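Fold it.
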Amino acid sequence: MKIAGVVLFSATPIGSDGAIDYSRWKKHLDAALATGVHSLTLFGSTGANGYFTESEKMEALEVVAKHLGGRVPLMTGIGAMTTAESVRLAKHAADHGADAVLVVPLNYWGPTEREIVRHYETVAAASALPLWLYNNPPLAGIDLTPALVAKLASIPTVVGMKDSSGDLTRVFTVPRMTDGKVKVGIGQDTLILEPAASIAPAWFTGLANICPAECVAFWNAAKSGDIAAAYGLAQKLYPLSELGARYGIIRVAHSALDILGRPLGGPRPPILNLDGAAAEELRAALVKFGF
């Protein structure tokens, strides 16, 4: 199954013991899927990739894939500090229910272009799963530029890129530079209308943890050509997406669900829920949204 449409970047529920809370997670996913969410990603940025061990990520994929039972396409984030770990996660994903893998180049020592290319080549060779590049310069500190993506497009399994650079031109530039091979999905919740109404195949969003029905309604309106309805929904979603951009969508998603009485537990420390004025600002935005 292809990753497409509204792709829930799921938050990862944490129990009081600090472990992943699968009971809450299953209920959260079922509620989102009931609204029509098209695809699911585990361990994206909203899911706190980088804050879980290799074994935790493997177990999570197995549990969630079994629970979903093929209801929607499932992608799992396998970005890691070392190529070897990403390779192991890729192999595991291929054998345990993933339909695609998402690879962000986590780093401490900023890798050279040659190192980035070698990393992706090696990870891609570990499985036949479709591979989505994940470009998130603000968080990863690396920009997968169109020129670099054009080089990565020679890797057979690379099919797309989630782009969180904020540069809308890449939705059009990257497919043109890769002869249509690499599609660009929306990765910035504040910049959704133009790419959704044109050629973006997917919207990877943490907002769908909070308001999945509205996210789906926006996407369907945009893709059906009802631009007036899509614009109205984009306006409605914007205050929450702006807070996510300003405070971090992982904090906003977990905090909003707490406020709405659908708690998933806080993010895994050292990340914390919002407090003080930021929490009150979020509470006011949720009331204005209509919750």
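Residues 227-247 form the longest helix (21 residues).
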